[in-house]
Amino acid sequence: MSDILNVSEVRSGTWGQLWLDNEQVAEAYGCQIKVNKTKEDVARCRTLINGKKMTAVSITGTVRIYNATSRLIKLEGAALKQGRDLRHTIISNLDDPDNPNNQRIAVKGVSFDDLTLADWQAAQLGQIEAPFTAEDFEVLDS
User: Fold this and answer.
1) Quick check: 101 and 142 in contact, CB under 8 A?
2) Which of 7, 22, 39 shows the shortest CA–CA distance to 88?
3) What's the CA gap between 33 and 28, in Å, rounded?
4) What are phi and psi of 104, to 5 degrees?
5) What does the alpha-carbon distance between residue 72 and residue 69 come to, in Å, rounded to a whole number?
6) 16/12 Cα distance (integer angstroms)
7) Nearest to 62 by CA among 135, 131, 108
8) Is the dihedral of CA 118, 126, 132, 105 positive or negative?
9) What does the pLDDT profile of the chain (142 residues) look like in tens digits?
């Protein structure tokens, strides 16, 4: 194995795809999904430096879409007015043809944190960021 990065294998977001509840979101232009660790301090003898112990994890993310379809308003709006918090599945796929490995991740139990009803400005492309939390993840391809 070489100690020099083969730059052609760096994945480009140009090749990303997003599915929401098994429906491809063509207006998606970005996605970020993270597993966040909660850590507690652990006092230790014979040192003034605390250690850290992981005590929980949480999953957060953001879907970035062009304001083209009102997809999220249609999906979430009526449920929110009835006091319901819908759960979804998101699949992120990054399949750069220069990289021999596809990277496909599913997050389940997705709950959007907010719903953008309007956000526009003259001479600007309409873009929406939809932050979310999730309850589980699965690596489908790596």
Assistant:
1) yes
2) 22
3) 14
4) -125, 125
5) 8
6) 8
7) 131
8) positive
9) 578 988 888 887 778 999 999 999 999 999 999 999 999 999 999 999 999 999 999 999 999 999 999 999 999 999 999 999 999 999 999 988 888 888 999 999 999 999 999 999 999 999 999 999 999 999 998 8
Q: Are 91 and 136 in contact (CB under 8 A)?
A: no
Rg over CA atoms, the chain: 19
Report the C-alpha gap between 126 and 35 in whole angstroms.
28
- Judged by DSSP in three states, 72 sits in helix
Q: Do residues 93 and 102 lie in contact, with contact meaning Cβ atoms separated by under 8 Å?
A: yes
Residue 37 DSSP symbol: E
The three-class DSSP label of residue 8 is helix
Q: What is the DSSP letter of 123?
A: T
Q: Domains in the chain, please, with CATH?
A: 7-141 (2.30.110)
Q: Which structure tokens are listed for 70?
A: 């009102």
Entry pTM = 0.89
Give the Cα separation of 68 and 66 in Å (integer).
6
- What 3-state class would DSSP assign to 64? strand
